[in-house]
Design brief:
- The complex is a heterodimer of chains A (302) and B (609).
- Chain A is an all-alpha fold.
- Chain A has helices at 14-42, 51-60, 65-93, 101-123, 128-142, 148-155, 164-182, 184-190, 193-209, 232-237, 243-260, 264-267, 270-301.
- Chain A starts with 13 loop residues before the first helix and ends with a helix.
- Chain B folds into five domains: 20-78, no CATH class; 87-220, no CATH class; 223-263, no CATH class; 276-380, no CATH class; 381-577, no CATH class.
- In chain B, a hairpin with a 6-residue loop joins strand 11 and strand 12 (423-438).
- The chains are: A mainly alpha (302), B alpha+beta (609).
Chain lengths: 302, 609
C-alpha cells in the first residue's frame, strides 16, 4: 500500500517538487500538533508564581502531562527544523525568482518568526535556562538603538510578571502571526492529512522513548547554562563581541538578505544569492563550533 | 475526498490508536505522586522525623530546601542541582535565605566574624611574617586566591582554617566532622544523618533548632581563649591525663588528645544553668550586617545589659514578639513591655523586671524562670575611683594562660590546607612553654577600661628547610597579651590587696613585689635568662615595674598599666590592708588623704613597709 504523500505529483523535478512540498506539509502539521498540544498544556500552565515548580508538577504529576509536554516540545522542534529545511530548499532552488515578492516576504517572515516562537517557549520552561534566556532576550532588545527600550518592554517585564509577556507572545501573538503569514499555504496544506498523521504517529512513538532535556532548578548552581540549540552560536559570540553586533546584527543579516531576495532588483544578481548562501553557511559553522566549544568553556569557567 | 484515501490513512490511524492505548496503559501503571504532596521526594526518601516543628516535611516537602526537580521521579532529573546541606553558605541565600523564608539572614551571617574570620586574619597578617601584597580581609577572599602563602596565611590555612562557617561539612568522625556547614554549623541538634545511607527509604533527618545547644559552640570555642571550656569550669591541662584512674589517663578528655582539670565554672552556669544563647543574642552571633574586625565589636551583650537594664523598648512589634517567643514550639511567658534592648537594639524578650531590683530571665532552651539581682551595692559598683574597672576585672575567677606558643614549620613535609582540602608543602607543629590558671592579669583594653589579659599569643616561629636544618635567620617571635572575657564569672571577688598588691594582677608577673620610696621593686619567679627564649623579662610579665611594656597588646589602644597607673594602684595598696571598706573616709578623696598622711597630719595605724 502506498500512502498519498509518497505518490508522485508529476513534473520534471520529481525530487524537488515532492521533497519540498513534503517539508512544507510536515512543517505545517508540526505547527498544528504543537498548537494543539500547547492548548492542552495551557489549561494547567500559569505564567506567574513559581513557574518552575508549577511546570514540574504539570509535567510529572498531572495525568498525561509528560506526554503532552514531550509532544509539544518535539512538534515545536520539528516545526522549526522542517521550516528551516523547507526554506533552504526554496533558497537553493531559487524559487524566489518565480514568486511574487509578497509571497516570498511572507514565507521568509513566517520562517523568521518560528525562531522567537521556539525561543519564547524555551523561556516558559521557567527553569534556570529559561530565566537566563529571558534576561538575554530583553537585554539584547535594549541594545537596539532608539526602539530598543520600548521593544524590550513589549517582550518581557522583569519582576513578578517575568513570564507573562513571553507567554502571551508564545501562545497568541506569534502563532497568530505565523498562521496569518502562511496565508494561502495553510488552506492547501490542511488537505494533506496523510503526512500529518504519520508525523503524529512518529512523534507519539517518540514520546515514549525521548527524554526531555532536564529542567534546571532556578536556584541550582550549575555551570554550562545554554539557550536553545539555534542560539548557541550567538551565545558563543556574545562572549567576545558587543551585544548589538553579535546579538542583533549578526542573526538579522542573513534574514535581511533573504528578505531582500524578494525584490527582482536584488534577486537578479546571482552574486547576492551566493553571498546570502555563504552567510548561512558561516552561521552554520559558528553554530557547530559553539555546540563543541560551549560545554568546554562552561567547564573552564564553571 | 479522493477514492482510496480512507485506506491510505488506515495505517497511521491504526498506529495512532495503538499509541493512545499505550498511553492509557502507561498512565495507569506509572508511579504517581499522591495529590497534595509538596513534592515527589518521598517516593524514594522518607524521613522518620521532621527537620523541626517549623519545617514539617509533609507541608514543605524537601525540594524547598534541598532544591532539585521537585516532581521528577527519574533519579537523574530529580537530583539535578540537589543540595545535600542547604545551610551551606555557598547556597544559603537560595535555600534558608529565599524570599519566603529568612532572606536577611545569610547576608548578615556572611559578614559575621564566624564566617569571615577577619579577627584572626587581621591579627595574624599584622603580627606574623607576611607579604602585604597577599593581604586578605576574610576567609572567602583567601579561599579564592591561588596565592596567600605567606607564613601568616600558610599557618592560617593549615592550623586555623578548619573553623569557619564557609567550611563544607564533611562526613568525618569526631569534632572536626561537626565543624562548618554554614547555618547548619549551629542550627542542628544532632548529626544523626551525617553518615546515613540515603539509599534506604527511611532515615532520620537531622534536627534543626533555634535553641542552639552549647555543644555546638564548644566544638569550636575550645581552643585559644578557650572560653567555651572555661565557662564549664574546664581548664585544659598540660596533657598528662592526671589524675590517673586505674593506672590509665583520667576520663577528662578533650578533642585532640587533650585533657582538662575541673575548676569552678562560671556562675551563670553553676547557679543558673544558662547556656551560651541565653546571653548571646542573634545579632551578636549572626552579625548585624556589618563586617567587624574583632569579636568585641560584634558581640551584642555586656554584663550591664541584664544587670543594669535599660527599658528602652516600649512598643515592641507584637508579631515579631510572638514569633520569637513561640520559636520551635516553646513559648516563653512574658508580661507586656517595656522591654530591655541590647546595645545593638536586640529586644531581650526573655528578660523582665520583677520588683525590688530583681529581674527574671527565661532560659531559652527550656523556658525555666531564673530570678536574679541587678547590680547590688551601688556604693561599690559606682565608686568613682573604680569607674574604669570592667566587671570582668574583679568577677573573673580565673583565666587560662598558655605561655610560649612554639610554632615550627618543617618545609620538607606537607600538611592539609583546610581551605583547599589538599596537602601543600610545609608542615606546622605547635607546642607551648607551659599552661597556668589563676586570676587574670589586668591591663587597659581598647575601650579604656581595665580588664583581664592573658597570653594571646606569645609566638616563637622556627623554620626548618627541605633538609630539616634549622634556619635561624627565618626565626620570628612576637609576644602578645590579649584582653578578653574569660567567662569564669564569680560572685566572690578578691579583697583589695588581692588586686592592688598582687604583681601578677598588675602585670609584672609572678614574684615578690616591694614598694619602696624609690619605686616598685619586683623579684620574679620566672628566670628569663635561663629560659632559652632570648628574653630578658618574665614570660608572664606584661610590663616592667616602671611601666615599660614588655609585650604587645592585641588591640590598638590597649596596653599594660603605665608607671603612673602602677604607682597609683600600689599607693592605694599600702592603705587597703587596713582601710578595706569602700565607705572608709580616706577614699572620699584619697589624694587629699594621702597628702595629709604624708604631711604628718594623720597618723597611720600600721607601719608602712
Amino acid at each position: 500500500m502506498t500512502c498519498s504523500f509518497f505518490q508522485s505529483q508529476g513534473g520534471s523535478s520529481f525530487f524537488s517538487d515532492r521533497f519540498g512540498r513534503s517539508l512544507a506539509i510536515l512543517s505545517w502539521w508540526a505547527f498544528i500538533i504543537a498548537l494543539v498540544s500547547g492548548i492542552v498544556l495551557s489549561f494547567n500552565y500559569r505564567p506567574w508564581g513559581n513557574v518552575y515548580l508549577a511546570l514540574s508538577k504539570l509535567t510529572y504529576q498531572f495525568p498525561y502531562g509528560i506526554f503532552f509536554r514531550k509532544l509539544h516540545y518535539l512538534s515545536g522542534q520539528c516545526f522549526l527544523l522542517f521550516a528551516l529545511a523547507h526554506m533552504s530548499e526554496h533558497f537553493l532552488r531559487r524559487t524566489f525568482l518565480h514568486m511574487k515578492p509578497i509571497e516570498w516576504l511572507r514565507l521568509v517572515s513566517a520562517f523568521f518568526l518560528s525562531f522567537p516562537l521556539v525561543f519564547t517557549g524555551f523561556i516558559l520552561k521557567g527553569d534556570k535556562e529559561g530565566i537566563f534566556a529571558g534576561e538575554v532576550m530583553v537585554n539584547l532588545a535594549r541594545e537596539i538603538p532608539i526602539v530598543g527600550a520600548g521593544l524590550a518592554m513589549l517582550l518581557l517585564k522583569p519582576g513578578e510578571d517575568f513570564f507573562l509577556r513571553p507567554y502571551l507572545h508564545h501562545t497568541v501573538t506569534l502563532p497568530l502571526l505565523v498562521i496569518f503569514l502562511l496565508g494561502g499555504h495553510r488552506r492547501r496544506l490542511f488537505l494533506e492529512k496523510g503526512l500529518g498523521l504519520l508525523l503524529l504517529v512518529i512523534l507519539g512513538v517518540l514520546t515514549f522513548f525521548y527524554q526531555l532535556p532536564p529542567d534546571i532548578p532556578p536556584r541550582a548552581e550549575i555551570a554550562g547554562i545554554t539557550g536553545p540549540w539555534f542560539f548557541h552560536g550567538i551565545q558563543l559570540l556574545l562572549r567576545y563581541g558587543s551585544p548589538l553586533m553579535v546579538g542583533i546584527l549578526w542573526p538579522m543579516t542573513p534574514i535581511s538578505f533573504m528578505l531582500a531576495l524578494a525584490f527582482p532588483l536584488v534577486s537578479s544578481f546571482r552574486q547576492f544569492w551566493i553571498l546570502t548562501g555563504i552567510l548561512w553557511v558561516i552561521h552554520l559553522i559558528v553554530l557547530c563550533v559553539a555546540w563543541f566549544l560551549l560545554p568546554i568553556l562552561a567547564g573552564v569557567s564553571g | 475526498m479522493k477514492p482510496g484515501q480512507k485506506s491510505d490513512h488506515f495505517i497511521p490511524l491504526f498506529l495512532l490508536m495503538i499509541i493512545v492505548a499505550l498511553l492509557f496503559l502507561h498512565e495507569v501503571i506509572r508511579k504517581k505522586i499522591p495529590p497534595g504532596s509538596p513534592d515527589g521526594c518521598a517516593m524514594c526518601h522518607e524521613t522518620n522525623t521532621d527537620p523541626s516543628v517549623s519545617h514539617p516535611v509533609a507541608v514543605m516537602g524537601c525540594a524547598v530546601c534541598h532544591m532539585g526537580n521537585p516532581f521528577a521521579l527519574d533519579k537523574k532529573k530529580a537530583h539535578l542541582g540537589l543540595i545535600r546541606n542547604p545551610g551551606s553558605l555557598q547556597v544559603a541565600q537560595k535555600t534558608c535565605g529565599q524570599p519566603e523564608c529568612h532572606p536577611d539572614l545569610p547576608g548578615r551571617v556572611k559578614k559575621s566574624l564566624m564566617a569571615t574570620n577577619q579577627g584572626i586574619l587581621s591579627v595574624m597578617q599584622n603580627l606574623w611574617p607576611h607579604n602585604d601584597a597577599e593581604s586578605v580581609q576574610n576567609v572567602r577572599q583567601l579561599t579564592a586566591l591561588p596565592t596567600g602563602r605567606s607564613m601568616a596565611l600558610d599557618h592560617y590555612r593549615k592550623m586555623c582554617g578548619g573553623c569557619h562557617l564557609w567550611r563544607p561539612r564533611y562526613p568525618q568522625l569526631g569534632e572536626i566532622g561537626k565543624r562548618g556547614g554554614g547555618c547548619t554549623d549551629c542550627h542542628i541538634q544532632e548529626l544523626v544523618c551525617l553518615n546515613s545511607d540515603l539509599s534506604q527509604k527511611k532515615f532520620n533527618h537531622p534536627e534543626l533548632t533555634t535553641h542552639i545547644p552549647d555543644e555546638n559552640c564548644l566544638k569550636c570555642h575550645n581552643r585559644s581563649a578557650r572560653i567555651g571550656l572555661s565557662y564549664y569550669g574546664r581548664f585544659e591541662s598540660e596533657g598528662y591525663g592526671t589524675p590517673y584512674q586505674h593506672g590509665e589517663p583520667g576520663p577528662r578528655q578533650l578533642s585532640g588528645n587533650r585533657f582538662y582539670l575541673e575548676l569552678p565554672s562560671d556562675v551563670h552556669h553553676s547557679k543558673a544553668g544558662l547556656t551560651c544563647i541565653d546571653c548571646h543574642t542573634e545579632k551578636g552571633i549572626m552579625g548585624d550586617g556589618k563586617e567587624y574586625q574583632h569579636q568585641e565589636d560584634q558581640v551584642d551583650i555586656t554584663c550591664n545589659t541584664c544587670h543594669t537594664p535599660e527599658y528602652r523598648l516600649k512598643d515592641p512589634d507584637p508579631d515579631l514578639t510572638r514569633r520569637l517567643l513561640r520559636g520551635n514550639g516553646r513559648e516563653t511567658p512574658v508580661n507586656a513591655g517595656p522591654f530591655i534592648l541590647s546595645p545593638k537594639e536586640s529586644p531581650m524578650y526573655n528578660l523582665k523586671a520583677v520588683s525590688d531590683g530583681k529581674l527574671k530571665l527565661f532560659r531559652k532552651r527550656d523556658g525555666k524562670e531564673i530570678v536574679f539581682s541587678g547590680v547590688l551595692n551601688p556604693k561599690i559598683h559606682k565608686a568613682e575611683y573604680h569607674r574604669r574597672l570592667s566587671c570582668q576585672a574583679c568577677h573573673s575567677a580565673w583565666i587560662p594562660q598558655c605561655y610560649g606558643c612554639h610554632e615550627n614549620l618543617f618545609l620538607q613535609a606537607s600538611q592539609k590546607d583546610w581551605l583547599t582540602g589538599e596537602k601543600s608543602p610545609g608542615r606546622w607543629t605547635e607546642g607551648r612553654s607551659y599552661l597556668r590558671f589563676r586570676r587574670p592579669t589586668l591591663g587597659i583594653n581598647s575601650g579604656d577600661s581595665i580588664g583581664p589579659f592573658a597570653p594571646g599569643c606569645q609566638v616563637y616561629i622556627e623554620v626548618f628547610d627541605q633538609k630539616g636544618r634549622h634556619q635561624p635567620e627565618e626565626s620570628h617571635r612576637h609576644l602578645v597579651m590579649a584582653g578578653f572575657d574569660p567567662h569564669t564569672t564569680t560572685l566572690k571577688v578578691p579583697d583589695c590587696e588581692g588586686c592592688h598588691l598582687d604583681p601578677k594582677i598588675l602585670g609584672l608577673g609572678t614574684g615578690a613585689l616591694k614598694i619602696t620610696e624609690k619605686g616598685l621593686v619586683f623579684d620574679p619567679v620566672y628566670q628569663a635568662a635561663a629560659s632559652g627564649l632570648g628574653i630578658d623579662f618574665p614570660l608572664d610579665a606584661f610590663e616592667s615595674p616602671d611601666g615599660t611594656p614588655f609585650q604587645l597588646a592585641s588591640r590598638k589602644n590597649s596596653r599594660p598599666f603605665n608607671k603612673e597607673e602602677l604607682d597609683r594602684i600600689t599607693r592605694v595598696g599600702l592603705c587597703v590592708s587596713c582601710h578595706d571598706k569602700y565607705d572608709d573616709k580616706i577614699f572620699n578623696d584619697f589624694n587629699d588623704s594621702f597628702l595629709r598622711f604624708q604631711a604628718g597630719e594623720v597618723a597611720c595605724r600600721k607601719e608602712v613597709p
